[in-house]
Amino acid sequence: MLIQSPKNEKVKQWKKLLTKKGRDQANRYLVEGDHLVQEALLAGAVEELIITETSMTKYTETSFGSVGIQMISDPIGKILSETETTQGIFAVCKKKIDTKVSGIRFLLIDAVQDPGNLGTMIRTADASGIDAVIIGKGSVDLYNPKVLRAAQGSHFHLPIVQGDLSEWISHFQSESIPVYGTSLQGGESMYTLDPGKPFALIVGNEGRGVHPSLLQQTAKNIFIPIFGKSESLNVSVATGILLYYLRGNDSVVGKEI
Amino acid sequence: MLIQSPKNEKVKQWKKLLTKKGRDQANRYLVEGDHLVQEALLAGAVEELIITETSMTKYTETSFGSVGIQMISDPIGKILSETETTQGIFAVCKKKIDTKVSGIRFLLIDAVQDPGNLGTMIRTADASGIDAVIIGKGSVDLYNPKVLRAAQGSHFHLPIVQGDLSEWISHFQSESIPVYGTSLQGGESMYTLDPGKPFALIVGNEGRGVHPSLLQQTAKNIFIPIFGKSESLNVSVATGILLYYLRGNDSVVGKEI
């Protein structure tokens, strides 16, 4: 059956997933576009596929395995889309609640507001081989469409925990994983740390940085040296530099927690 | 005199600076906001200051030295602003045409389209102590307001040349500065290069990367290893990781060209 009416009950439910409140209530979110939908399918996260009439011609019946497909008119596709020119394919995904982590490299994110930044940081954490990302209170919603787009599928690649950063710092410390804050004031150069060792790195809000109460809990607070005249770095860029520096190029002989 | 009419000749001229065509014709551009205006003043780039009635109360007559100030009504400020809530201060700046460079570390940018990316890359080049940035054809306008905002004043901190990248590659090679392209296909890990030596690094377009014809001119093409499951990194983040890796922490005993 082709859904054509914006008043259709399913369309109403899907539209709710475009807001944080709707996503929280339904415990579900919407991904859009070929690449993200494929990543979601691979991860087994998809409950329902939604495809426009026009886009349907691109696929065969067997493209998506056993996942149910709902066909919609192109105008309904425009309603659901967060992009200027939609690829006409969406997936309703169930949130995956990660609560435990294991590994030797972690990224903790404190109150990052910009969805592009948060998504890019998750993508970078994935690329640098981080074992899990912990997102504290006050960050933009992890399932915001712009966060999903910037992360380019990394939501499906590594555990992402939403929790209390202060408690997680204590947890990592109890497991002998040193926790490093980032701070332009009162910190030490990242070069005072040797690469290739276990770490949990905290990065923070675009304006104020990492909250002072968290910086007091850490083993050390570090900064990236500025060799030129700029005052600071963009938080996504800084996160990439720090994660790649701390990882280093050698394989790590570390402990698993 | 307070300018209140959108039809005022000056307002018409300023509005033209909001488009690339207008900036090219006038050889001037507009910066907005306290921080950028201060940076432009420090650099001696400002020809005229434009301040709204409301914002004028924040400053004293002597805040800006001898630069002429034009007061405008708040609604005119809204017309000139590219932000949601303007700080009500603008400066008309004359383009600074850099053609020569000197130093041992260079960043070449090939056809980067997103203004946030280009601005962030200039800011990062500044932070990492790059001696000059060379921007090739096909990139977003260097003086686009979003590029200026993302660069946070770095336009005024280091030479930025607009030119033919192929010619610049030949120039650096003739000066014995090795040129490295970036390429996910057919390249070598960045870790095959030792940090702390002179370099000219080419980074490229968000979709296609560095143009193949440029990659054929280089000494070596490199990539950032992906340790996780993501396919690639955001180009601004990748630029930051590469520039900080190649610089290294030690002072460089290099040659000046």
Defining key terms:
homodimer, 257 residues, alpha/beta, 60s Ribosomal Protein L30, Chain: A, Alpha/beta knot, 2 domains, seven-stranded parallel β-sheet, five-stranded mixed β-sheet, 10 helices, disordered C terminus, RNA methyltransferase activity (chains A, B), tRNA_m1G_MTases_N (chains A, B), MRM3-like_sub_bind (chains A, B)
Model description:
Chain A folds into two domains: 2-94, 2-Layer Sandwich (60s Ribosomal Protein L30, Chain: A); 105-247, SPOUT methyltransferase, trefoil knot domain (Alpha/beta knot, 3-Layer(aba) Sandwich), CATH 3.40.1280.10. In chain A, 32% of the residues lie in helices and 21% in strands. The N and C termini of chain A lie far apart (50 Å). The first copy, chain A, has helices at residues 9-16, 20-26, 34-42, 53-56, 74-80, 115-127, 145-151, 165-174, 212-215, 235-247, and strands at 2-3, 28-32, 46-52, 69-72, 89-94, 105-110, 132-135, 160-162, 179-182, 188-189, 199-204, 220-223. Chain A has a seven-stranded parallel sheet with strand order 8-7-6-11-9-12-10. Chain A has a five-stranded mixed sheet with strand order 1-4-3-5-2. The model of chain A is unreliable at 251-257 (pLDDT under 50). In chain A, helix 7 (145-151) links the parallel strand 7 and strand 8 (160-162). The radius of gyration of chain A is 20 Å and the shape is elongated. The first copy, chain A, has ten helices and twelve strands. The longest helix of chain A has 13 residues, at 115-127. Chain A has 257 residues and is an alpha/beta fold. At the A-B interface, helix 6 and helix 10 of A face helix 6 and helix 10 of B. Chains A, B: Residues 30-99 form the RNA 2-O ribose methyltransferase substrate binding domain. Chains A, B: GO terms for molecular function: RNA binding; RNA methyltransferase activity. Chains A, B: It holds the Pfam family SpoU_methylase.
